[in-house]
């Protein structure tokens, strides 16, 4: 059943989009990430213009994150205060990111920046997560005691001014690191069409030292705010949000996310991290592939001629 | 002897389209339109028919992949003006057999003769002592760029050249098919039907065709462009409501 997308101006199979949305939604609920880093490349492969894919995907990520954050909220696994601070940075970041993306499109370097960001961020973060979590899995298999996570929190986290209490995360830290983190993720959200969960989750664990139990829910909460804003800005500034595309994706996405959130309790945390790390790493490699291999067609048509 | 035969009336061509208004709705997957016509020529000289369909003009931005320090990057994009968003040239036999280079170039018949150029790359300078020479900054690569535009557009189904696309079905009756892909731009299209005799165009007929978004698609498209902020807010509201509804529905079950 093919359907013509009014903004993307291409015709795609509607059922395929719903199934894709469900699959990515499942992964989203399972790992506590938006899933945009998987969906955006697939949409581009389906022939949807990258600018439209990035913008409409932000909408889909907002929906599936909303779907799973409610379940995490019920389990008291969301630190709303931390999420709010992250989102404040994220909001500024996405305003900046949409402008940067607009400028890059005019320069004709938008595709390049998208592939380089995917390659660098996904490759590095996926690789790190994979090695760290595989080491943890191996230690358990050998029956060694889990390496104690140092309670020695980095001193710079405490030396900074503007401290704030985050009771649910049992933290009393400066708001500067989360705001800066949110800002970076907001920029990436606009440029890469992702929620940024794949950066937020590890950063919250390893940098902010938040308890693992609240990380996923909090990450999803801040993703909703950032991607929601990104989506409105992309629609307002670039007119690239295709609501038909987003609706088809989120129809599957919100259901998939529910199943994913349920399934997540059946796996061990480090096994989940290893799987996610592998997935992130592979997508990063795939997106970076084009940077290293001589293209079959040396010329490319670019969107946005005027 | 050389008496009273009246001069033969000039040859003429007539043509019509099976559809003159293509509506792009949610089920649009491209369209096939048949152009049919007839050649009227009492002298029955050999005639050739060329059909040229042009869509609304759309500047094209092209970039070239260049290798920089081992990485394949995009070059600065080059903007080509004068490129139609859709172009089709069909004829009953190869264009080169129908008319000469200059004629084809003047009429813009055939993808090789499309008047597309990159004015921003143009520069006037003195070369070999000749003043005011127009040269392109793309230099000798210019043709490669130009060919790339045609090749990429052809791959997207937007440009086509079919040297057997016009078929004479019976006597002077002919037909040609216009295949619009789903990605065909909206706007007014022009179909020029040219009759050639002795390598010269002798008659012409122009038909117009409009492709426009209709119904729901049109409403959404207009909304997204006329009221982008409300459109954006509404789409996010739909997304959040759907996410919330799904989690509520699942809690019950």
Helical residue percent of chain A? over 70%
Strands of the biggest beta sheet of chain A: in what spatial order? 1-2
What fraction strand of chain B?
A: 35-45%
Instruction: Tell me, rounded to a whole number, the average pLDDT of chain B.
Output: 84
For the record, give the distance between the C-alpha atoms at the N and C termini of chain B, rounded to a whole number. 102 Å
Structural class of chain A: mainly alpha
- Strand residues, percent of chain A: 5-15%
- Counting helices, strands and paired strands, the structural category of chain B is alpha+beta
Distance between the termini of chain A: 33 Å
Shape field of chain A: globular
Give helix and strand order of chain A, one letter per element, not per position: EEHHHHHHEEHHHHHE
How many strands in all of chain B? 15
From the spread of the alpha carbons, the general shape of chain B counts as flat
Helix content of chain B: 10-25%
Rounded to an integer, what's the Rg of chain A over CA atoms? 19 Å
What features would you describe in this structure?
The complex is a heterodimer of chains A (306) and B (253). Chain A is mainly alpha-helical. Chain A has 11 helices and 5 strands, in the order E-E-H-H-H-H-H-H-E-E-H-H-H-H-H-E. Chain A has helices at 14-31, 36-45, 50-74, 80-107, 110-141, 156-159, 176-192, 197-206, 212-238, 243-263, 269-292, and strands spanning 2-4, 11-13, 163-166, 171-174, 299-302. In chain A, a hairpin with a 6-residue loop joins strand 1 (2-4) and strand 2. In chain A, helix 3 (50-74) runs parallel beside helix 10 (243-263). Chain A is globular, with a radius of gyration of 19 Å. Chain B has 253 residues and is α+β, with helices and mostly antiparallel strands. Chain B is 25% helix and 40% strand. Chain B contains 5 helices and 15 strands. Chain B has a 6-stranded mixed sheet with strand order 2-15-14-4-8-11. A 4-stranded antiparallel sheet of chain B has the order 1-3-13-12, with no helix packed on it. In chain B, strands 6-5-7 form a 3-stranded antiparallel sheet, covered by helices on one side. In chain B, a hairpin with a 2-residue loop joins strand 14 and strand 15. The radius of gyration of chain B is 25 Å and the shape is flat. Chains A and B meet through strand 1, helix 3, helix 9, helix 10 and helix 11 of A and strand 5, strand 6, helix 3, helix 4 and helix 5 of B.
């Amino acid at each position: 059943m093919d359907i013509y997308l009014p903004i993307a101006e291409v015709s795609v199979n509607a059922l395929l989009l719903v199934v894709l949305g469900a699959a990515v939604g499942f992964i989203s609920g399972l790992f506590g990430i938006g899933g945009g880093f998987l969906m955006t490349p697939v949409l581009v492969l389906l022939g949807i213009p990258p600018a439209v894919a990035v913008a409409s995907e932000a909408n889909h990520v907002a929906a599936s994150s909303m779907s799973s954050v409610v379940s995490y909220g019920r389990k008291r696994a969301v630190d709303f205060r931390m999420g709010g601070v992250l989102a404040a940075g994220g909001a500024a970041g996405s305003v900046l990111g949409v402008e940067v993306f607009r400028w890059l499109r005019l320069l004709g370097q938008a595709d390049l920046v998208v592939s380089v960001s995917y390659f660098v961020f996904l490759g590095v973060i996926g690789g790190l997560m994979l090695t760290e979590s595989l080491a943890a899995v191996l230690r358990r298999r050998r029956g060694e005691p889990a390496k104690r996570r140092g309670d020695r929190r980095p001193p710079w986290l405490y030396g900074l001014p503007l401290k704030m209490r985050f009771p649910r995360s049992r933290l009393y830290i400066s708001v500067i690191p989360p705001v800066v983190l949110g800002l970076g993720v907001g920029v990436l959200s606009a440029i890469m069409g992702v929620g940024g969960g794949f950066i937020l989750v590890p950063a919250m664990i390893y940098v902010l030292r938040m308890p693992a139990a609240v990380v996923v829910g909090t990450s999803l909460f801040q993703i909703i705010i950032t991607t929601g804003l990104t989506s409105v800005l992309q629609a307002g500034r670039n007119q690239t949000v295709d609501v038909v595309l987003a609706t088809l994706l989120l129809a599957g996405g919100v259901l998939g996310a529910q199943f994913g959130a349920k399934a997540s309790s059946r796996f061990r945390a480090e096994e989940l991290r290893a799987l996610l790390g592998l997935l992130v790493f592979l997508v990063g490699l795939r997106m970076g592939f084009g940077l290293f291999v001589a293209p079959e067609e040396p010329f490319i048509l670019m969107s946005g001629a005027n | 002897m050389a008496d009273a035969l009246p001069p033969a009336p000039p040859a003429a061509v007539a043509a019509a389209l099976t559809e003159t208004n293509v509506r792009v709705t949610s089920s649009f997957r491209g369209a096939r339109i048949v152009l049919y016509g007839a050649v009227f020529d009492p002298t029955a000289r050999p005639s050739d028919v060329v059909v040229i369909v042009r869509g609304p003009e759309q500047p094209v931005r092209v970039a070239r992949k260049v290798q920089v320090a081992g990485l394949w990057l995009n070059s600065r994009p080059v903007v080509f003006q004068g490129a139609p968003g859709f172009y089709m040239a069909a004829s009953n036999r190869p264009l080169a057999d129908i008319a000469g280079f200059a004629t084809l170039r003047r009429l813009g018949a055939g993808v090789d003769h499309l008047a597309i150029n990159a004015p921003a790359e143009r520069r006037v300078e003195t070369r070999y002592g000749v003043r005011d020479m127009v040269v392109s900054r793309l230099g000798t690569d210019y043709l490669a760029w130009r060919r790339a535009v045609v090749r990429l557009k052809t791959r997207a189904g937007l440009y086509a050249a079919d040297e057997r696309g016009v078929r004479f079905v019976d006597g002077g009756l002919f037909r040609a098919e216009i295949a619009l892909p789903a990605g065909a731009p909206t706007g007014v299209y022009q179909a020029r039907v040219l009759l050639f005799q002795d390598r010269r165009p002798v008659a012409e007929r122009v038909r117009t065709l409009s492709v426009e978004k209709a119904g729901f698609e049109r409403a959404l498209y207009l909304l997204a462009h006329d009221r982008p902020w409300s459109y954006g807010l509404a789409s996010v509201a739909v997304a959040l409501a759907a996410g919330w509804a799904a989690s509520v529905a699942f809690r019950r079950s």
